[in-house]
User: Fold this.
Amino acid sequence: MTEPSGRRERKKAATRQKIADTALRLFLERGYDTVGIRDVAAEADVAVTTVFAHFASKEALVFERDQDFERRLTRAVTDRPPHEPVVPALHREVHALVRHCTAEGSAPVRRMIEESPALREYEESMSLRHAQVLAAALATDPYLSRSTTACQATARFTIDAYALACRADDPGATVDEVFRMIQAAWEATAP
Assistant:
């Protein structure tokens, strides 16, 4: 995650992280459906309005790294050297992101998400948004010349590679397998 530069930004980031950490702890201790925003605010010692200033919804508290995830995938496209192939850059970034979702202690969070229809629905809408943003980055890259459909499909498969790997017995092998398919499809769409 990017470090905020000024004192005010650091304080805002610290408050945001405190709220997210408190919410996750409460959700895991008591169950997602039994904990409300007021409970989170009280436990984090902030106002309810402060919670909503940092998070648009209760579901967003669980996916607090959402913006960082999207930014990292987009930067894998936009910040790579001009002649570096895009698919290997995305492959490396997805591997790094999967390490986070499969790190020690992440299983209870994954289980909580899988058990909650609201969280699964939120995760799916978030994935669609990530795919749209990534597709736009692919489509506007001056070194890539692919159709809109190719960019959209590649973006969606990239997001799906992450989702599948987070649930797989062998996350690394899953990412590698999906990216072999992505690479083949990307090459097949070359002009």
